[in-house]
Amino acid sequence: MSSEGDRANENERRGSEARLRSILETAPDMIMMVDRAGKILFINRVTPPLVASEVLGRSCYDYVPPEAHHRVAAALDKVFSQRLLDEYEVRMMPTSEGERRWYSVRAGPMIEGGKVVAATLCATNVTARHRDEERSRELASRLQKIASQVPGVVFQFKLRPDGTSCLPYASDRIRELFLVSPEEVREDASKLFAILHPEDRETVFESIRYSASTLHPWQSEFRVTFPDGEVRWFYGNAVPETQPDGSTLWHGFANDISQRHEAERAKAHLEEQLRQSQKVESIGKLAGGVAHDFNNLLTSMMGFIELALMEAGPDSSAAEYLAGAMDAAKRGAALTQQLLAFARKKMVRPEVVDINEVLQRMGAMIRRLVGENLDLSLSLSPTLGKVKVDVGSLEQVVMNLVVNARDAVGESGQISLETRNALLDDDYCRTHAETTPGEYVVLTVTDTGVGMSPEVQARVFEPFFTTKPTGEGTGLGLAMCHGIVKQAGGNISFTSALGQGSTFRVYFPRMIGATPPHPISIWTPAATTIASVGNETVLLVEDEETILRVASEALSALGYRVITAPDGVRALELIERTPERIDLVITDVVMPQMGGRELATRLVAMQPGIRILFSSGYSENAISADGVLDEGVNFLQKPYTPTTLARRVREVLDR
Fold first, then answer.
1. Confidence of residue 631 (pLDDT cuts 50, 70, 90)
2. 87, 137, 186 from 130: Cα distances, Å
3. So what's the pLDDT on residue 520?
4. Distance in Å from the first CA to the final CA of the chain
5. Do residues 388 and 476 touch, judged by C-beta distance below 8 A?
6. Does 337 have pLDDT greater than 80?
């Protein structure tokens, strides 16, 4: 009976060993047992070309690279000394094909009789996993490199079914553009939404909801407000897809477009400036032409009125009526001068001047204009540069700006005049049409008045546009200032807002190294009177018959011998038939067949030293450049009276 039991136990033991051997041999992992020194006691399989018989009895350290020996030793020490499990990964020696496989090894103790008799090492081939991880790292590295070259943020945005959201991925540039880290928004995007501009927040949310419901690409322009108050514009674009859990995942990018918005704003501003400039230019051409014709009419009217006054008794009713007509004509003449200034057709004689000296000389008059109830201040730069400008025109600009400021302030407030030097760079000129970089002298007139609405600002330099009640303004003040400053090569700009006053800045090109002469002010009357009579021979050339008649009669009455011609060609014919020398030629600039400049050139060739006096209703390139008289050119501005004509003739003859 005993022998039968022994045989049964032996059979059971052999069956168990067979089952264990079958399990070990069919297990997907490599299983071995080693002693404390690492000698291999058992192995279920080996990788070709090795065979189990060759491996048994050898050290397991022979099959791992030297750099992994310390890790294997640490695992065996933990198993034998502490009876604990240990796990580690090791990259094996190259195979015959040169492949180095990765294995994940799990080491555990085999205990018999209360002692650790061996360590069981179960090695799982994880080469494929390592290969996938390496590929993932490579893809992540590529993505990171690509994302680093994208000017904006590359992101994934997830909207969960419960309405919460996150950014599973965001490129590192999110730190720079949105001042948050990828980690801060990886599970919760609320910190990013918190900095959306309040006016854009609902629009962004609505666009996200629409994209999620339709799976159309998401696009949006929005603003972000940073803790320091800075506001920047961004553009986002992303493609959505539905996830298995019901969430929506977008893949896209967001870019800072603040510079583009600023460029578009500057472009729109420049386009508006250009439109205004073109409108003002076209109105200026019309105004210049009207003023030219009107000046000819006024010259005739004022001439006939003055001749009639000479005939009328000084105390007669006719003299009173004629004086009234002359006053009206002079007001009309002043109006045409304003139109010419606006149209940049007014003839000027620029001088190098110090604006500070002009303002100081005008100080008393400015004070009277402003009145005692307003606070007037002057802040003049002690190092102010010089400018080249017609002094009378400069004074007109100052007076018009001060009067406008006074009217805007009303009963109480402040008006300040300031001068300084300024350097206008390319950035400034890009946002201000018709301005070139360089050094300028700036005259600033600031008031604390009612300010101007955007609608008024758009028309501020238009002639005849005014916000004043009927009869209190012609609407030519600022238009004239604009024309004067532009004719001097400068620029005029302003800033204003309703209830916050206005500031006008006038920029004149700075003259380097120039010493100003003593300018003649229009506010300082002439100290001397020139005798107007004479006996010289004068050739009068004028295509307007009435002006020709008035001027001829006026000069003849003063003793001059006057020869008249309706145009340049007839004038040359008369001179050729006139044996006596011509002392002075008075010629209109613009005439049919031959203009005044060509006539003067031919006359000088025929009679060297002959004196020429040009006359015109507005500036012409024939005798000037942009209304600036050429050096040594004598000019008589229309409209003029016979008295003015006689004085100017005498002045030219006696010079």
1. low
2. 16, 10, 26
3. 44
4. 162
5. no
6. no
Q: Report how far residue 635's alpha carbon sits from residue 623's, in angstroms, rounded to the nearest whole number.
A: 9
Phi, psi values for residue 433, rounded to 5°: -60, 150
Considering the domain architecture, whether residues 279 and 307 belong to the same structural domain is answered as yes
Residue pair 466/475 in contact by the 8 Å Cβ criterion: yes
* 131 vs 138: CA distance, rounded Å: 10
Measured distance CA(110)–CA(131) in Å, rounded: 33
Beta bridge partners of residue 353, listed in sequence order: 387
Closest CA to 31 of 110, 99, 98: 110
In this structure, the answer to whether residues 198 and 88 fall within a common structural domain is no
Residues 241 and 308 in one domain: no
Q: How many CB atoms lie within 10 A of CB 505?
A: 18
Task: Give the confidence band of 159 by pLDDT, cuts at 50, 70, 90.
Answer: very high
When mean pLDDT is compared over 433-437, 554-558, 626-630, the highest value belongs to 554-558
CATH, residue 233: 3.30.450.20
CB within 8 Å of 99: residues ≥ 6 apart: 127
pLDDT band at 238 (very low <50, low <70, confident <90, very high): very high
pLDDT score for 619: 53
pLDDT at 268 over 90: no
- The Cα–Cα gap between 37 and 384 comes to 96
Cα 460 to Cα 291, 508, 516: the distances in Å are 21, 20, 33
Spatial CA neighbour of 48 closest among 88, 99, 90, 91: 99
Quick check: is 79 in a domain? Answer: yes
Question: What is the token pair recorded at 64?
Answer: 């791992």
Rounded distance between C-alpha atoms, residue 515 and residue 350, angstroms: 14
Question: Does residue 501 share a domain with residue 355?
Answer: yes
- Mean pLDDT, range 617-634, rounded to an integer: 56
Three-state SS at 584: strand
DSSP 72-135: HHHHHHHHHHH---EEEEEEPPP-TTS---EEEEEEEEEEETTEEEEEEEEEEE-HHHHHHHHH
Which position has the token pair 């050290």?
A: 59
Tell me what pLDDT residue 622 has: 43
pLDDT at 89 over 90: yes
Average pLDDT of the residues in 561-589:
87
The pTM is what?
0.45
In whole angstroms, give the CA distance from residue 222 to residue 195: 11
Average pLDDT over residues 639-645: 85
Task: Tell me, rounded to whole angstroms, the distance of Cα 63 from its chain centroid.
Answer: 71
Domain assignment of residue 631, given as a range: 537-654
Q: Structure tokens of 547?
A: 């002006």
- Please state the domain count of the chain: 5
Contacts by 218-221, CB closer than 8 A, 24 or more apart: 218/250, 218/252, 221/257
Spatial separation of the C-alpha atoms in residues 34 and 76, rounded to whole Å? 9
